[in-house]
Design brief:
The chain is of the alpha/beta class and 474 residues long. It folds into three domains: 7-131, Rossmann fold (3-Layer(aba) Sandwich), CATH 3.40.50; 146-297, Succinyl-CoA synthetase domains (Rossmann fold); 306-472, Rossmann fold, CATH 3.40.50.261. It has helices at residues 7-10, 27-37, 82-92, 110-125, 168-179, 198-206, 224-237, 250-260, 267-277, 285-297, 314-326, 336-345, 361-365, 367-379, 399-419, 431-443, 455-472; strands at 14-18, 43-47, 53-54, 57-58, 72-75, 96-99, 129-131, 138-140, 144-145, 155-164, 183-189, 213-218, 241-245, 280-281, 306-311, 330-331, 356-357, 386-393, 423-429, 447-449. A hairpin with a 2-residue loop joins strand 3 (53-54) and strand 4. The longest helix is centred in the C-terminal third of the chain and has 21 residues, at 399-419.
């Protein structure tokens, strides 16, 4: 049977909330409240046999009472009545359902497994599309949301889509993104993935005009070949997929089975899939967020792996050099012209040295003149593919710091556009100052991290992706 288009998951014209609640402690209340708060323009049908009105919406006793079409249904019911609710949706002609309820195969019980198997049978024998169970829902502001998570402060005018095979983790990441000024396009939690899976969403996002980067957390794979085809198509035609996979170790695989009922995949086989598909695999949550944000911030390529480091801290230069070598980057060898220009403002530096330690030369030449001279020389050097540079962030910046940051920003943007040569800012200083400086640079299309020694892995991830894309895009 032909399957319904999954656009109804993100952009329904009408939605039923099966399990809407009057109690403010219940997810069924918060799902409906979020739909109201975003001023959803479609028709809203809360369903609760014991209520007449919730949050100003007329409440229906049963799905059958609704006269009009229903594009999407959000199910927040006890586990033992979810299957019947989905069957009711099929009979009503609902295009898609999002099952927030947990308690299925991930429990390991025969009852939970049987319920999940029944849902799979319904999905295979009908046109309806099912997200979940055990999902947090989707967030596609300002058009639609099916989540119970607080959306306050979330910005969805960006290029980064977030997909997670999890519920609570996805909800936690929504709050992280909202409180860290991250700009996203779409967020979807897939839960146990009995029907709609990563490949379906990747294919959908490949046609989404807003999304250019995907951050994907997964534990299990529905189909290796489908995922490879979908991811490869996105990576070649659209942009990078940054992948964090849980369940790599035997212990992690056991945890994944009890979390989302995911079956283990041999990690060597999975690594081969990642390489063939052009996905960027990362090892930790920090690297996951840093790399995904970097791709979303900087639109250009990373053409090579030759790095220049400018710092006023010798220790930061040493640590960053170690990380460059560890991750496969090379410390660039500067041209004689570049060395001469640097020597004008850092005369006590070893000729040709990289990293460039600007202290104590900044006392004589001035911080602004020293750093901008070095930065411009390096950005013009054909032997340098990218620049790593430290900046300072004070809680209460003076006029010199603000002017300096503006000059650095303008120089970097000039050469990022002229030569497609990226720079990464490593910010040191006080907490509020660090966050302010990071926001200033990232808002202006420049990658910024808290500690410089995090930058080499990010750059290497970007370089490997662009190596893949340059090989296959033609």
């Amino acid at each position: 049977m032909p399957r319904a288009d999954i656009d109804s998951i993100f952009n329904p014209k009408s939605v039923a909330i099966i399990g809407a609640s009057r109690q403010e402690t219940r997810n069924g209340y918060h799902v409906l409240k979020n739909i109201k708060d975003i001023s959803f323009t479609g028709k809203v049908y809360p369903i609760n046999p014991k209520a007449d009105e919730i949050l100003g919406f007329k409440v229906y006793k049963h799905l059958k009472e609704i006269e009009g079409d229903v594009d999407n249904a959000i199910i927040i019911l006890p586990t033992n009545i979810v299957v019947q609710a989905v069957q009711d949706c099929v009979e009503k002609g609902v295009k898609s359902v999002i099952i927030i309820t947990e308690g299925f195969a991930e429990t390991g019980t025969d009852e939970g497994k049987n319920f999940q198997q029944e849902l799979k049978k319904i999905a295979k024998s009908s046109s309806i599309r099912i997200v979940g169970p055990g999902t947090m829902g989707v967030v596609n502001l300002p058009n639609f949301t099916s989540t119970y998570v607080n959306l306050g402060g979330l910005q969805q005018d960006g290029k980064l889509a977030f997909i997670a095979q999890s519920g609570i983790f996805a909800g936690g990441m929504v709050r992280y993104f909202a409180s860290h000024d991250s700009k996203l396009s779409k967020i979807i939690s897939l839960g146990n993935k009995i029907d709609v899976d990563d490949s379906d969403i990747i294919d959908y996002l490949a046609e989404d005009k807003q999304t250019r980067v995907i951050a994907l957390y997964m534990e299990g794979i529905s189909s290796v070949e489908r995922l490879k085809k979908s991811a490869r198509n996105f990576a070649i035609k659209k942009g990078p997929i940054v992948l964090l996979k849980g369940g790599r170790t035997p212990e992690g695989a056991r945890a994944a089975r009890s979390h989302t009922s995911s079956l283990a995949v041999d990690d060597r086989v999975f690594d081969g899939l990642v390489r063939q598909a052009g996905m960027v695999r990362v090892e930790s949550l920090d690297e996951f967020i840093d790399t995904a944000n970097a791709f979303a911030i900087y639109n250009g390529p990373v053409k090579g792996n030759r790095v220049a480091i400018i710092t006023y801290s010798g220790a930061v230069g040493v640590l960053t050099s170690d990380q460059c070598v560890r991750h496969g980057l090379q410390l660039a060898k500067f041209s004689d012209e570049t060395n001469a220009k640097i020597h004008e403002v850092v005369p006590d530096r070893r000729w040709g040295g990289n990293p460039i330690d600007t202290y104590p030369a900044t006392i004589k030449s001035g911080t602004q003149r020293t750093f901008t001279t070095c930065l411009e020389a390096l950005m013009n050097d054909e032997n340098v593919d990218c620049v790593l540079m430290t900046v300072w962030g004070d809680t209460h910046p003076d006029s010199h710091e603000n002017k300096y940051s503006m000059l650095v920003k303008n120089l970097i943007l000039k050469y990022q556009e002229k030569y497609q040569k990226p720079a990464v800012m490593g910010v040191l200083g006080e907490k509020i100052g660090i966050e302010r400086q990071k926001k200033f640079f990232t808002d202006n299309g420049i990658i910024a991290v808290t500690f410089m020694d995090r930058a080499p892995k990010i750059l290497m991830n970007m370089y490997r992706y662009y190596q893949f894309k340059s090989r296959y895009s033609n």
